[in-house]
Amino acid sequence: MVKGKNTNSLMRHLRDNHNIDIQGSKDKKNLMNMGYYHGYKGYRYIKIPQNTIEFQSFSEVVAIYEFDMMLKTIFYPNLMMLETALKNHVLEVIIKKGSADFEHVFTNLLNDYKKENAGSKKYKKKMKSRLNLRDHIYDTISRSFASDKPVIQHFFHKNEPIPLWAIFEVITLGSFGSFVHCLNEETRLEIANEIGLKSTNHNHNGRLVEKMVFAIKDLRNAVAHNSVIFDCRFKQGEPAAELKAFLSSETGVRDVTFDNIVDYLVLVIYLKKNFGATKTELKKIIKDFSRECEHFGEVIPREAYSAILGTDFRTKITRLLRYV
Asked: In angstroms, rounded to a whole number, what is the distance separating the alpha carbons of residues 300 and 295?
């Protein structure tokens, strides 16, 4: 049987094997609060485990941990608001076009495959995505009923079709992104117009909304599950080039790459502005974010700070404030 290390042993391990100055009751308390495995091991590198940060003292580890937690505090309510707003704007367009019954929407709007030649690779790919979406939604409805979700049980008990708004209550943001992806081009373009995406250069086929959904999905899930976000390691795929170019064009913030967390702030601010947030509210979000980043830069090595936030962080903040 392998004997585990208690907190004192872990502190000794950090001193002897990682050359980190950690000692005293304050450091012990901080290590216990953040955890060795979830905390220290998750915050000792940038993006990949091989890219370790050369810490000198445990206070630097604590600074990254606290910075990461503050970022989640800033992002969480805004991401939740954006998820709700995006779903409601999509619903608004669909309801204007007819019934909100899922079967009706599936037949008449989730039919982007029709623009392809029957039997072609693109046709089969789009049809597969459409059928997978239907199966996933039915499975989610079934699991929601089994777990006594009131919004789903209500319609089952009344023997009524489950409307789209109720389905949106129980599906994930990723599934919602797939839903938008499967909509026909006419509907996608109407949704983009509803959301206020004015530029058509990067959105000629209406795909920009789904690309925004998929970009914030990874951050939203990481924040909701208390995963590390400061270095964007949560990113599961590379956001679309069209989205990067569109945000740079619309906001004036250059080099939006989504390699640094500030670029996700650019997307959040852009969407919130489109959804009617006031200048005062938007400036507060940006300044709160900037203040935490500046404080962070005072307590960790400069090289690590630049690697995490990018060398153009301050320029991006200045341009984002100008955009607001």
From this structure: 9
